[in-house]
Amino acid sequence: MNKIRSFLSSVALLTLLLSVSGCATTNDNFRSDLQRLKNQMSRLEARFIESQASRGSIGTLSKSIVELAATRKQSVVAISANPDIVTNNGAGFIYNQDGIILTNDHIVRVDVLELNGEHKTYYPETVQVKLYDGRTTKGRLIGIDPSTDLAAVKIDIDNLPAPLEFSHRKVQQGELAFTIGHPRGLDYSLEWRPIGAAYRKGSLPGTLVHQMGRGFFVGNSGGPVFDLEGKVKGTVYASVNFRDRTNPATTVLYPVIGWAVTAETLQAVAPQMLNGKHKITGFIDGQ
């Protein structure tokens, strides 16, 4: 509003000056002053139009994200492979109408330290899946790919939310993205993250990942990364964490950089998991 008042006041003043100049004897000085005033008026008008357009685009973008979040979060789920183990709680999203959900391998995997000091990995036959509308059901683990930290779970439930759509364009460094997940148990949180670097070698050997400008917390894993069109361009899987060195006794970690598996990898690996390429052994009894 202040910009509008300032612009209108400037226009009124310039109009008055132009009128006075028009009544005066026209000579080189007056013509020069007249042109200068006209140029200034044009610049003010351009700045005004630009500011209004900018305000409008920000408002439109905000409204668009609100609308996208309202629809996309319905296709995001919460997954618990073992509620007693924090790292086995995360997110996932609906991949197709057959009830297939994509998530992280580390969400559905249970790592156990045996009495003899040996580490063993187990997988439950079923995991708990909670939908946005509050319905809870059992999901059957049907495929894993530890090399890309991906897993596929199948649920059988009526009125399944719509599958999410993948982005088919190349991701660019610097573009904005948003995630929907459950960080620290805060269900369906939307968070903004810029793409710090696209298609980078990360902590998954042989698999390119997107570097996110901010890290993730427990509960974000397996959740989708969206572009500004609401299409999936990746899925959360890990963070680079730094411990608070000012207080060695604390256990607080600061996830300053995040990693996301790319949409290209998701689309390549998902059919492989559904077709049984990676066999699951060592199911935990009684799940």
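The record above closes out task 2.4. Task 2.5 opens with a second protein, given below.
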Amino acid sequence: MSFRGAVVAVCLLAAWSLPSFAHKPSDSYLTVTSIRGEQTLSAQWDIALRDLEHAVGLDQDGDGRITWGELKASRRAIESYALSRLSMEAIARGDRARCSITPLALLVDQHVDGHYAVLRLAIECPFEPAELAVHYGLLFDVDPNHRGLLDVVRAEGGQALVLTNDRRTTTISLTAPEHLAQFRSFLDEGIWHIWKGYDHILFLLTLLLPAVVVYRGSQWQPRASLRDATVDVLKVVTAFTVAHSITLSLAVIGVVWLPSRLVESGIALTVLLGAANNLIPVIRERRWLVAFAFGLIHGLGFASVLSDLGLQGGNLALALVGFNAGVEAGQLAIVLVLVPVAYGLRATSFYRRAFMPAGAVAIGAVALYWFAMRATGLVLQ
């Protein structure tokens, strides 16, 4: 295949992926509070305005802005849509009964990725539940990749889980939190986040593709041994892992915070710079330093999943460890698939003279698009 053909093929593949980045995957935050001895529970449900606009239509005058007046005017439609997609059942001593959910108030709040409608709810159960079955179906008809982050709060200890299109129903013990289930839930979420985070994947590609070659004499040359390539990969991946783990942890506990638009624009810029360095290598030997520096920015992007949950103490630690472990597992899977293939192709002229530059051009073009859209706010990622 010629260089021109390689560029066209890779650019077509990149262009196909662009619609996936038109909007940030939808999410909501449902916090249920239970008090021992009470059969009535309280809840707060935060749903992004951008998602409600897609689902029920909030922008009545079509000016591209959702005002407080428009939100209040849509209150009944929001409540009807949301509550038709949420139900709960109380379980205790072999009995099971449906709880009624009553909306109490509509508020608005700012999250790291924009404004959210806040529904305050009262959950009336026929008896005090020992377990709570939650049936969740919000926004799956609009976005199959939607995530519902559920946090059940109780004085004896809480539990947080992620509800998805494949896992719409869960049962949570209100007497003995199931920590293993929470860890597994956030482990899966971490894996999903890295595999669906195409900007993170493209950044990894800019770091991993040059690991099996070395730039000498104004062109890419194959590395002499698998050991050399493996050492380079380990340095790069370890640096990236350490860096994003640091900022992920700091952001989730509230020590570091940056606006979502700035973080997402920064991530796109790291992809662009990584691609540019593969096209015109400036940093050749210590790419692990680049991985570490840019990994700090990617960690802030990972943190957006957990920052708005409001988890505390051991509950937060468990979710953080599980999510971070999932990110690492997802990242490791990419490395294990990509590096052996790249190593096997490293000596071919296609890989060194066509794929490397063509891939850099295609990735750079996509990253430039993302950066322009995110920096200007025309696309919310």
